[in-house]
Design a protein that fits this description.
Layout lengths: L8 E2 L7 E2 L4 H11 L32 E6 L32 E8 L5 E7 L4 E6 L5 E4 L1 E2 L11 E5 L4 E4 L4 H7 L4 E6 L5 E7 L2 E7 L8 E2 L4 E9 L12 E9 L16 E2 L5 E3 L8 E8 L3 E10 L2 E7 L10 E7 L8 E6 L6 E8 L2 E9 L6
Parallel strand pairs: 8-10
Antiparallel strand pairs: 1-2, 3-9, 4-5, 5-6, 6-7, 9-10, 11-12, 12-13, 14-15, 15-16, 17-19, 18-19, 19-20, 20-21, 22-23, 23-24, 24-25
Length: 382
């Protein structure tokens, strides 16, 4: 799976069809059309940290600059690639050729435009980006993209659309990105030497600084309570390279940004790694609090899915799946949503996405993630 991949579309029918494809930005556009038509009718909003805009991201007003919409490559700041609603794709596909502008596209963002339509931004592996505004009639207009705030060749960009129609890219590692996504916190991440960084949280008269061994392609996930989650402690002890390089993660940071709670830094066993770019946050057990979901791999048993919960200063393992059974066989979390025939919460995953993916669905049951469905190829589950 490349960095640009990852996505899911859930048809809104009583007997649900699940089509898992790794084309995330299409999900954003479906969600936009599903959640209220033209965004220009309602204008900008200021929402609490647990609420989301049409594209799944919080709309805030950092530093007096009005933000109309936010678009992630992974749908939501939590990394959960699921947005409720319903919509439809156009009968005739809208095609925009960026081959002459972008070299090897790797990221795709989408968000609503204040004057109607959808903003699409394509970013290449060299960090260059091109933006378009696409109307419901299929007409497209190229838009300038301000990409001065970061390097997007490795880290998933975040698309910010202003009320004046201007568009820019940032990241959850950039100061302006953290300000936009965490309006009630004062957080900065400063890049250090390759593989290091300093996370600073200011809370009134107190300041917390945390040194992270955090490789350049790590990114921060943001929970409903404004806690930052990031893989850390980069290591080459499991040189699989499923997503492009042999560097994985030996630990994780959970950093509350608004309530003053202590940060948590769980470490894995020396044979294990977190395999992926970031954990995913979702309330899979429906207790009102988000769990932390990731993939843990080792050379002997391969990859397994792990559900964790932060309790005070401890991160506890809630459930695990059966491992893939052999080293260098990856599985990757995609979304948590009511996928079950009875609308039960399930974790959708892709097993071995880099060598012919198989869509799998898991349910949490008595401390285990139980496999309930497997869909090879383009098979539909009804």
């Amino acid at each position: 799976m490349t960095k640009a991949s990852g996505g899911l579309y859930r048809a809104a029918t009583s007997r649900r069809e699940r089509l898992l494809k790794l084309t995330l930005a299409a999900v954003s556009v479906i969600a936009v059309t599903a959640c209220g038509g033209s965004a220009a009718e309602e204008g900008p909003k200021t929402l609490g940290p647990a609420e989301t805009s049409e594209t799944g991201g919080p709309i805030v007003d950092p530093g007096g600059t009005e933000v109309h919409a936010v678009g992630f490559t992974y749908s939501q700041p939590s990394g959960n690639r699921y947005l409720p609603g319903k919509g439809e794709l156009p009968a005739t596909p809208i095609r925009i050729d960026v081959s002459g502008v972008i070299d090897s596209p790797v990221w795709l963002n989408a968000a609503v435009h204040p004057d109607g339509g959808v903003v699409w931004v394509v970013t290449g592996n060299d960090g260059n980006s091109v933006g378009y505004r696409v109307g419901s009639d299929g007409d497209s207009v190229e838009l300038p993209v301000d990409s001065s705030s970061g390097d997007f060749s490795l880290v998933p960009p975040v698309l910010i659309v202003g009320t004046n129609g201007q568009i820019r890219l940032t990241t959850t590692r950039a100061v302006d990105g953290l300000t936009t996504l965490l309006p009630d916190a004062q957080v900065e991440f400063s890049e250090g030497e390759l593989g290091t960084g300093e996370l600073r949280i200011d809370r009134g008269d107190s300041t917390t600084s945390i040194s992270l061994q955090n490789a350049p392609d790590a990114t921060f996930m943001i929970s409903d309570d404004s806690t930052l989650y990031s893989y850390a402690d980069s290591t080459d002890r499991y040189p699989h390279g499923a997503i492009g390089d042999p560097i994985e993660w030996g630990g994780m940071w959970a950093v509350p940004t608004v309530d003053g709670a202590e940060a948590t830094h769980p470490l894995l066993e020396e044979t294990d790694v977190f395999e992926g770019l970031y954990p995913m946050l979702a309330d899979i057990d429906q207790d009102g609090e988000q769990e932390i979901i990731g993939t843990v791999s080792n050379p002997t048993t391969g990859a397994m899915l792990v559900v964790m919960k932060r309790v005070g200063t401890i991160v506890e393992v809630v459930a695990v799946s059966e491992p893939t059974g052999t080293g260098f066989r990856w599985t990757h979390q995609v979304a948590v949503a009511p996928f079950g025939p009875d609308d039960a919460m399930e974790l959708a995953t892709i097993k071995t996405p880099h060598i012919g993916g198989v869509a799998e669905f898991y349910r949490l049951a008595e401390g285990k993630l139980e496999l309930v469905a497997s869909l090879p190829g383009n098979t539909r589950r009804t």
